[in-house]
Structures are given as C-alpha cells and as structure tokens.
Design brief:
Layout lengths: L3 H4 L3 H15 L9 H8 L3 H7 L3 H20 L11 H18 L1 H11 L2 H4 L2 H23 L9 H20 L6 H17 L6
Helix pairs in contact: 2-3, 2-7, 6-7, 6-10, 6-11, 9-10
Length: 205
C-alpha cells in the first residue's frame, strides 16, 4: 500500500500521479512499465515517488485497489450482499454495468487489461488474493440464494462462483480488446449463458 505521505497529498496531486501511472500502464504490460515515465508525466521528483510507493509492485497493487474503488462507486449497491437480488440477475447487471464502466473509463480499463494480461502479475500473491476474495463474495451470493430456495442446495457454490468469474473475465477481456464493442452481442452472450444455467443442457421430456 502507498505510504501515509501519499494519502496526505491533496486530491488533485494524487489524481495527477495516478493519471500518469494509468497512461504508462495502458501502453505497457507490467514487465515493461517504466517508473521514469510516470515520474516525469506526474511532474514529481524521483525521491518523492519513493516517499509514496516502495516500488513498481506497490504502485501496481494500489492501482488494482484504485480500480476497485472506482467500480464500487460506479456500480452502486450491486455488489452489496445486503442488496436482495437473485444471483443470475445480479450477475447480468454487474456484467453489463462493467461495459458501461469501460465506456466511462476507457484508459483505466485498457491499463487494467494490460495488467491482467501480464503472466508475472497474474501469479502475484496480491492478484491471487483478490481473486480468492471475489470467489468468496460470489459464493456468499450463491449460498444466500440456496437458503432462499432460488438455487439447488446440492450446487457447489465454489465451482459455480469460479465458473461465473472465469466467464466474466474471459469474455469481458476479449470484448474489451476489440476496437468497437458490440453491446448487443455482449448482452446476447450473457443471456445465453444465463439461459443455460437456468435450464441446464439435458433434454427434458
């Protein structure tokens, strides 16, 4: 995490530093991020950077949290377990809202794609921990629905949570990598998945 010195900066300066970091991250994968470019574009002394962050890894971990904070504000109550909504409806709304977020913050999402695409970063303990937390969150949604009789009790909540997140990450990433996002095709894809989940693949006579 950044030092308290970073958090004590005024908001404009913090945003300037993050904008410089996002610009660099949107052009290069984790392995090729150049801190000198970020320091130059942010207009801060090199020594000041190291008062704010320990190293590149510290900055990138904070970037991951930075995206999370932006998403939480953008998505409203969709992630809150206390928001009583069936799992599949919640999944669809979160999924589609993700593309609205991408449209609102294109450079931020491009930087996120570069980060996710880095094999080194994917293997980091931070990212593994974040994915684990996401799976736990979705397991909670599933288990609440199981108690309410919306999902069969014999469904393995961990497997279903992992599957939904893998689908979201894979299909979303592929769509974001295209120059023009076809929102109708995206909604068609998620509706198709939810229809399969609801009805299964067996032929029912």
């Amino acid at each position: 995490m950044p030092s308290q010195t970073f958090f004590n900066l005024n908001q404009a300066k913090k945003e300037r530093i993050m904008e410089a970091a996002i610009d660099e991250m949107s052009m290069h994968s984790y392995e090729y991020i150049n801190l000198a470019n970020i320091i130059r574009d942010a207009g801060i002394p090199r020594g000041s950077f190291y008062q704010y962050f320990e190293d590149k890894n510290d900055l990138c971990n904070y970037f991951y949290r930075y995206i999370g904070e932006k998403k939480m504000a953008f998505f409203g109550n969709l992630f809150l377990p206390s928001h009583d909504i069936p799992l599949l409806e919640r999944f669809k709304l979160i999924y589609l809202k993700g593309f609205e977020f991408a449209k609102a913050y294109p450079k931020l999402m491009k930087a996120g794609q570069k980060m996710i695409g880095s094999e080194y970063y994917q293997k980091s303990d931070f990212v593994k921990g974040a994915m684990k937390q996401a799976i736990i969150l979705y397991q909670n949604y599933i288990e609440v629905d199981q108690k309410k009789g919306r999902i069969r009790k014999d469904v393995d909540s961990h497997i279903l949570a992992s599957f939904l997140l893998e689908f979201m990450n894979k299909v979303t990433l592929d769509a974001f990598l295209k120059d023009d996002i076809d929102y109708k095709e995206i909604e068609k894809a998620v509706n198709g998945l939810l229809d399969i989940l609801k009805k299964g693949i067996d032929v029912h006579v």
